Amino acid sequence: MIGAETRLVAMIGFPIAQVKSPANFNRHFDTQNDDRAMIAMELTPEAVKDFIATARGWTNLDGFVVTIPHKGAVAELVDEMSPRARFLGAVNAVRRDPDGRLTGDMTDGTGFVEALKQRHFSVAGKSALVVGAGGAGSAISLALADEGLSHLVLRDLDGNRAGALAAKLRLAYGSCTVETGIPAEGAFDLVVNCSPMGMSPGDALPVSENLLDQMPAGSLAADVVTSPEITPFLEAARKRGLAIQTGAEMAAAQMIQLGQAMGIFSAENSNA
Amino acid sequence: MIGAETRLVAMIGFPIAQVKSPANFNRHFDTQNDDRAMIAMELTPEAVKDFIATARGWTNLDGFVVTIPHKGAVAELVDEMSPRARFLGAVNAVRRDPDGRLTGDMTDGTGFVEALKQRHFSVAGKSALVVGAGGAGSAISLALADEGLSHLVLRDLDGNRAGALAAKLRLAYGSCTVETGIPAEGAFDLVVNCSPMGMSPGDALPVSENLLDQMPAGSLAADVVTSPEITPFLEAARKRGLAIQTGAEMAAAQMIQLGQAMGIFSAENSNA
C-alpha cells in the first residue's frame, strides 16, 4: 500500500485505462517487497509540457513510461536521449536523475526483440515484413536491423511514412536491404503486425491469406496488438501451424527494459 | 494494488515523507474496496505552478491535498476558493472537476474543530489561547471564532503576523474579542499549540507551567504537532489532569473533510 515514503514511477498516456504496465510493475514491486509504485496518469496532450516541467521538481519520482500519443512530444522535451530514441524521434521511458535531469530511451523495438530471443528466434540473416511504419513499426524495424536482419519490407497505408523510415534505415544499416511500396508477397521468416488492424471486430487481416500460406517452416507471425491477445491475424497463422508471438508477450519482455531505462532495475538484475 | 483504471488523488508538499494522509486514505480506500489511491508527491516550490497546470489536464486525478510549504502558492493558482480559504489566503485541499477546473478549500481549522466535537468539547462562549499565528494557527483561530468563541488571545513570535490576523478576525467576528501582544496569562478554557515547539527534543514549552496551572476543570490542551504524538506540552497538561487532544486526532478528524473538499466523499457519507 502506498505511503508517504513510497518511491514513484509513472506512466503517461491518453487514454490510459487500457495499459498493462502499472499492474505488471506493481505486482513486481509487491513480490520484491519494494516500497515503490507505478501510477497511471491520463494526461491530455496540452498538459505534457507542464508535466515534464513538474517531473523535474518531483523529487520522489524516479522515472516514467510514455505511451500513445505522447512519445514524440516527450522526445522534444527531455534533456538527453539514447541513440535509438534520437533515431526514432520518440521516447517511451524516461529516467529522472536526483538533480531533475531527464533522459529518454525507446524500448519498444528492443522489447520485441527480447521476446524473440526468449523463444530462441534469431533474426540474423533473415527476412521480415513489418506492417505499419508508425511508432511501434519504426522501433521494431530499427531493432530488427540492429540484430542483423538481411531483408526488410515495410508496408504502410502512408507511403511517405514508410519511405522516410526506409531511407533512414538504409543509411544506418548497409547490411540490410529495405524495400517499400512493393506488393508485400514472398516467403518471409517473420511477419509483424505493427498496425492497429485486429483491435476492432471485423478488421481485415494486415496481410493476405496467401502470404501466410507462403511462410516457411520455422517462421513466426507476431503482433503488437495486446487486445485481443490472439488477434485474427495470429489465429490465422496458428491455424497454418506457424509459431506466433502476442503483443502481451512483447509487453512482458519489455518490462525489464523499461525498468532499466527508468534506472530502477540494474542491468545485472535483468531477470527482475 | 494500483492499476491503469485506478482513480487518483495526490498530496503535495516538501518534504513529504513525514505525512500521514496517504497511508490513512489508502487504508480507507482499501477497506471500502474503492479502486482509488492517494500518492504522496514531493514537489519543490519551483514546480508548484507547473504541477497546477499539469493537474488541469490530468484526467484521472480527482483532487489533491496540499501541505507545507505550498498552501499559499496553491491559493494563488486555483480557479475558485471557499470563503475560508479566501479569508486565510491558503489552500489545503483542491477538487478537480472533469473539465479541469480547480477549487480550493482549507480544512485545517474545521478539522481541528471536528476533533473537538468528537470529544464533545463545545467552543461557544469560551476563551482560548492560540500559540502561533501561521497557517495552522490562522485556520484554527478562524474556525474557533466561527464556532462562537467569546475571547481569543493570539501569540506569535512575529507580532505583526498575530496583529494582522487579529485585525481580520475582529472585522469578521464582532462577537469574539481578539487580543495580541499581551502577556498570555489567564484561565483559558482551551490552549492550542500551533507552533512547531515540541517537534525537536529540548524545545521549550509553548506556554508557561504557570499558565497550565491556571487552566480550569474541564479545560483542554491541544497540539497540532503530530510527531511526537504526545509533545512535552501535552505531557505537562496531562500531568495536571487536564484533557488533551493530539495532532494525530486532529489529522484523523480532518480526513473526512479533506475527502469532501476533493469531492471524493459525499457530504452524507460523513462517516467515510
From TrEMBL, chains A, B:
Task: Please provide one cellular component term from the Gene Ontology annotations of this protein.
Answer: cytosol
Instruction: Write out the entry's keywords from A to Z.
Output: Amino-acid biosynthesis, Aromatic amino acid biosynthesis, Oxidoreductase
**Span of domain Shikimate dehydrogenase substrate binding N-terminal:** 12-94
**What does the record list as coiled-coil region(s)?**
none
User: Keyword Oxidoreductase: yes or no?
Assistant: yes
What GO molecular functions are on record for this protein? NADP binding; shikimate 3-dehydrogenase (NADP+) activity
List membrane-spanning regions.
none
Pathway where it operates: Metabolic intermediate biosynthesis; chorismate biosynthesis; chorismate from D-erythrose 4-phosphate and phosphoenolpyruvate: step 4/7
UniProt KW Heme keyword: no
What name does this protein carry? Shikimate dehydrogenase
